[in-house]
Amino acid sequence: MNDQLSTAAKLFATAFALTAAAAAQTAPTFTKDVAPLFNKNCVNCHQPGEIAPMSLLTYEQARPWAKSIKAKVASGQMPPWHSVDPKGTFLNDRRMTDEEKSIITRWVDGGAPQGNPKDMPSAPKFVAGWEIGKPDLILSMAKPYTVPVSGTIDYQYFQIPSTFTEDKWIQKIEVRPGALSVVHHILLYAKDTAHPGHIFDAYKQLIPAPRNSSRKLTPEQMAQMEKRDPGVLIGMTAPGTNAMIFSPGVAMKIPAGATLTFQIHYTANGKTEVPDQSSVGIVFAKAQPEKELRNTAFLNPTLVLPAGVADVAVPTTIEFTEDSHITALVPHTHLRGKSWEYKLVFPDGHTQTALSVPTYDFNWQTLYVYTKPVAVPKGTRLEAIAHYDNSVNNKSNPDPTKEVHWGDQTWEEMQYTGIQYTVDGAKPGVPSPASAGGQ
């Protein structure tokens, strides 16, 4: 009886080994199947010197992380993407297809084989760390800023004169942190110093009264916000968003003599002082564009989040004053933000979802770029509602016992939407009578 059991066990072990060997032979390989997926979806961040914690450019670099990669991809955590709008809605949609996820799963389950080195595709070419290729112009902070070892660091503002003697049209723009380890995000603004206060926005903002408080911004607070206004948002870098590359025939204007301002959010690493000298790279359009890309924002600074409340809705609305096309949106809150919903209400009353982000993640600030710009006739409203969790259920909540108001720091909150759009029939660089009146 024991001999029979021993023989059966040996046969089972042999069959298992043969099955495993066959599976390994039929499993996808890194060089032929997985590396192309990583090149397409991952290595923009997962390369030396970039924000990701490890590189995935080679088999030797990726193999130790195989099981973790499988888990992150299967759960949808990687590549990071939080909109649930249909695939194809956004040009920069990072989601893998079911087939792509299956390839990675089968590769890992098959032992994560390397495959034939001759099948390895060429790695993407990166130009000295620039996603946009070689910039025509690089502008940097005048001198480094030393980030202290610890403590809270107020947002820092660094002005950079552009020295442009004529209006410049921008085709590509990329903000580069000098020290990734301490820079959380950078917003880049341009202020038209020759025409201060000249507003080109083709919409008016409708800020509703707070639903949960009688709190209003005081005249002093409004004056302080205006004083700190560095101009129009023209670029940014944050986890999940960096280079802006505009479609052929579309470009963004930086006026002659404009002053550029970096608004930088630094986070101390708790170990050592770190110097940072961040930069912006610019590629100019070869000719004046057919359409001007307008890059701006709308927000609700009157938000109030009561202590301990798990779901607080904060709305804001803009109404377009000219026929326009929205090209991109970027929602932004801090650690209490949990979801966003954007709805278009057209003049005839019908509605359309513009963007749905049911699981917002502060760690990933994504610029959602439409594959096809969304037409918004004059009179169309864009309604944005952000939801917040200020309760103990929110593990990221800095302090659920505190009522929270608008503020720059991450323990405060924002309800902010970056928006890019073009105005139908408008001559690039020239505001029409409808838009010159402002918000």
Q: Distance between the terminal alpha carbons, to the nearest Å?
A: 89 Å
One letter per element, helices H and strands E, the order comes to HHHHHEEEEEEHEEEEEEEEEEEEEEEEE
Sheet having the most strands: 6 strands, mixed
> How would you describe the shape?
globular
What is the percent of helical residues? 10-25%
Uncertain runs are 18-24, 209-214, 434-439
Determine the number of helices (DSSP H or I, runs of at least 4 residues).
Answer: 6
The value of Rg in angstroms is 25 Å
Which range does the strand content fall in? Answer: 25-35%
Q: Which structural class do you get from the secondary structure elements?
A: alpha+beta
Average the pLDDT over all residues and give the rounded result.
85
The CATH architecture designation of the largest domain is Sandwich
Give the strand tally: 23
For the record, the count of structural domains works out to 2
Level-1 CATH class name of the largest domain: Mainly Beta
CATH topology of the largest domain: Jelly Rolls
